[in-house]
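User:
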Amino acid sequence: MYKFGVLTLVLLVQQASAAAGPTDSTANQLQLSDYKRAMTIGDQYAKLTTNVPDVPFWLADGESFVYRQTTKASISSFS
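Assistant: Predicted structure:
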């Protein structure tokens, strides 16, 4: 889910820079390396944040759900 958000942000920035005005079109083009860097940015900063909840999901019984949340030590699961 987070990776989808990062990719969306990259695409919005690209569109905003393209709408800013006519410039050299090759200078504004995103390269494959830009997308790869955007996909790994969450991994780079994950250790710097705490109390960040992950997306919850329902268990097979349909009566309870589980979500993960980061802590200073590791990732904890709650239900």
